[in-house]
């Protein structure tokens, strides 16, 4: 009788468990969906967890301005002021010498000056022609707030942060009387061979595609449009035998 009771409890628990698999190409927004679920259906991010994102946010900000500076040469765009050319050189030198994920005052001053430059802004407007984090404008426009003493990242700051997903990351949360197990997997081509391990027992697949990627190319192959890759990937998943 005890065994029957235990089996029934396990069966009821399994019936209330929903296994969600997030699929999509790289940088389509899968990890952002996971963060949203944590904010909406769990307790969000604690102070300690938010503080852990500071290094990621600073790193994202530096990577963004460096990507724009490098694209200035590629796209043959001139700086609005000659001083900013010197700032660009200093930026690249500092990026090699500072501890990763930090934002010394000398570096933040350079980034703030560069971001105000008309040439940098013109290059930013052509972001679809090179690889740039979609959070670049958000962080660079708000850099003065991000470098204040005692800065604590907001939920929006956390949502905008970008770390490449490798492997398989599970997030659990409950909604009404259902228990959800959500699996986030890396979307870049090198990560997709791991997807096969996730399909067993899946209740639902959520396929993510970024509408903003219609005029962008893949990080791993600059000959392939991101939207085309998403459509091809969706087709291959739906028709997989």
From TrEMBL:
GO CC annotation: cytoplasm; heterotrimeric G-protein complex
The UniProt record lists the keyword GTP-binding: yes
Molecular functions (GO terms): G protein-coupled receptor binding; G-protein beta/gamma-subunit complex binding; GTP binding; GTPase activity; metal ion binding
Gene3D superfamilies, sorted: GI Alpha 1, domain 2-like, P-loop containing nucleotide triphosphate hydrolases
Residues that hold Mg(2+) according to the record: 31, 165
Record keywords, A-Z: GTP-binding, Lipoprotein, Magnesium, Membrane, Metal-binding, Myristate, Nucleotide-binding, Palmitate, Sensory transduction, Transducer, Transmembrane, Transmembrane helix, Vision
Coiled-coil portions: none
Gene Ontology BP, a term: adenylate cyclase-modulating G protein-coupled receptor signaling pathway
InterPro entries per UniProt: Gprotein_alpha_I, Gprotein_alpha_su, GproteinA_insert, P-loop_NTPase
Record: residues binding GTP: 27-32, 134-135, 159-165, 184-188
Residues spanning the membrane: 195-214
One Pfam family hit: G-alpha
Protein known as: Rod transducin alpha subunit
């Amino acid at each position: 009788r005890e065994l029957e009771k235990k089996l029934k409890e396990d069966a009821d628990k399994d019936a209330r468990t929903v296994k969600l698999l997030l699929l999509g190409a790289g940088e389509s927004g899968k990890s952002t969906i996971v963060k949203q679920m944590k904010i909406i259906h769990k307790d969000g991010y604690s102070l300690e967890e938010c503080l852990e994102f500071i290094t990621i946010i600073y790193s994202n900000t530096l990577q963004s301005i460096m990507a724009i500076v490098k694209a200035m040469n590629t796209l043959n765009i001139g700086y609005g002021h000659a001083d900013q050319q010197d700032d660009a050189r200093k930026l690249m030198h500092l990026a090699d010498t500072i501890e990763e994920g930090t934002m010394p005052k000398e570096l933040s001053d350079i980034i703030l000056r560069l971001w105000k430059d008309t040439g940098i802004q013109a290059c930013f407007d052509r972001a679809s022609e090179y690889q740039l984090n979609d959070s670049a404008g958000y962080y660079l426009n708000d850099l003065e707030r991000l470098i204040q003493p005692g800065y604590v990242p907001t939920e929006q700051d956390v949502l905008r942060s970008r770390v490449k997903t490798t492997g398989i990351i599970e997030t659990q949360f409950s909604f009404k009387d259902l228990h959800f197990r959500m699996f986030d997997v890396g979307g870049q081509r090198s990560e997709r061979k791991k997807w096969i391990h996730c399909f067993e027992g899946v209740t639902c697949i959520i396929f993510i595609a970024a509408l903003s990627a219609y005029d962008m190319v893949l990080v791993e192959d600059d000959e392939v449009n991101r939207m085309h890759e998403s459509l091809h990937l969706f087709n291959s998943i739906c028709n997989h035998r």
